[in-house]
Structure prediction request, 135 residues.
Amino acid sequence: MSDSTPLDRVLGFVKTVEAGGGAAELRPFLAEDFKLTEWPHALSKTGSTRALAETLAGADHSKEIVANQRFDVVRTTSQENRVVLEMNWSATLLLDLPHWDRGDTIRARSTAVFELRDGLIISQDTYDCYYTTPE
Prediction:
């Protein structure tokens, strides 16, 4: 783990999420004290904060919500142990959600800020801007 840069680790994490990785696949990237902060957006008006266990459970549960996730990284910024990714995200919905129906492709422009320690991600702050109208 320590042989790779923080950017390499974060990009590996994102590729694992994109490939449909669940708790077992994501756990090697995350520190025991990991915290995910999801800032308010169209699907979560108040946002949320999750610890490691909740995040891993959510990764397993996401397989019931979306398929074919894709992260197109547009820009990266890396400084010491902080990595920022700007991405275009899309996925196929497996159920109905506000603004979308099952089978629709849901899309968002997302910025994620990661902090690492000893090669592990200790925090992720996400800022998602969902497109709620068709292309």
About this structure: The beta strands are 30-38, 48-51, 66-79, 82-93, 105-117, 120-131. The helical segments are 6-18, 23-26, 52-61. The mean pLDDT is 93.
